[in-house]
């Protein structure tokens, strides 16, 4: 699909504050494989504890503004950790930055390494896991307007786990 060109009202030129915010540096450029931090980017819990099963995941929002209509988040999964097994109507565009791990997309379990790209289509079960001995850090781009993730029901899990590869991969507890 090509970008749609639309007529827009010119906006005010960037002020000094916007110019100063144009660059936010990575906090420790030499720290290639550890937790990634950036100036003026807060580190959040991945989700509210207890709201969904996950282990050892942080969330940082790198880019968000109305004109973008998307958010670019950075998730870091600690060694042995995992994101929530979930699905939803919105899609994920994922770029692995560093570390090692695997992910489930639909019924496929995929090995992940730096600079790999993962696309999660609508209503597709997905989960990200770091390796036992390495973190997994990745960018995830989403639409600003998005639906809440669904967790699997017992019947969903039973269907997913009919595949032994999927059954041995998924984590549904913290
Ligand atoms: Mn998701």
Provide an overview of this structure:
With about 170 residues, the protein is mainly β. It has one domain (about 35-170): Jelly Rolls (Sandwich). The chain has 3 helices and 9 strands, in the order H-E-E-E-E-E-E-E-E-E-H-H. A 6-stranded antiparallel beta sheet has the order 1-2-3-9-4-7, with no helix packed on it. The chain starts with 15 loop residues before the first helix and ends in a 5-residue tail after the last helix. The chain binds manganese (II) ion. Manganese (II) ion binds near residues 86 and 88.
Q: How many DSSP E strands?
A: 9
Low-confidence stretches: none
Mean residue pLDDT: 91
The helicity comes to 10-25%
What is the element string, with H for helices and E for strands? HEEEEEEEEEHH
CATH topology: Jelly Rolls
Regarding CATH, which class? Mainly Beta
Whole-number tally of structural domains: 1
Number of helices: 3
Report the end-to-end length measured between terminal Cα atoms.
Answer: 39 Å
Associated small molecules = manganese (II) ion
List the helices and strands and how they pair.
Layout lengths: L15 H5 L23 E2 L9 E10 L5 E13 L9 E8 L1 E5 L2 E5 L4 E4 L5 E5 L5 E8 L10 H7 L3 H6 L5
Antiparallel strand pairs: 1-2, 2-3, 3-9, 4-7, 4-9, 5-6, 5-8
In short:
This protein is mainly beta.
What brief labels describe this structure?
mainly beta, 174 residues, single chain, 3 helices, Jelly Rolls
């Amino acid at each position: 699909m090509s970008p749609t060109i639309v007529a827009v009202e010119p906006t005010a030129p960037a002020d000094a504050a916007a110019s100063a915010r144009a660059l936010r540096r990575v906090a420790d450029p030499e720290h290639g494989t550890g937790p990634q931090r950036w100036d003026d980017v807060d580190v959040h819990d991945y989700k509210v504890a207890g709201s969904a099963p996950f282990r050892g995941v942080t969330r940082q929002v790198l880019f968000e503004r109305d004109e973008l209509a998307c958010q670019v988040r950075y998730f870091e999964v600690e060694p042995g950790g995992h994101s929530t097994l979930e699905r939803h109507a919105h899609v994920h565009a994922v770029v692995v930055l560093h570390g090692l791990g695997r992910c489930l997309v639909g019924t496929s379990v995929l090995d992940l390494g730096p600079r790999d790209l993962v696309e999660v289509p609508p209503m597709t079960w997905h989960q990200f896991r770091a390796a036992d001995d390495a973190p997994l850090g990745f960018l995830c781009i989403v639409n600003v307007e998005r639906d809440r993730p669904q967790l699997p029901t017992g019947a969903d899990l039973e269907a997913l786990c009919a595949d032994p590869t999927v059954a041995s991969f998924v984590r549904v507890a913290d």
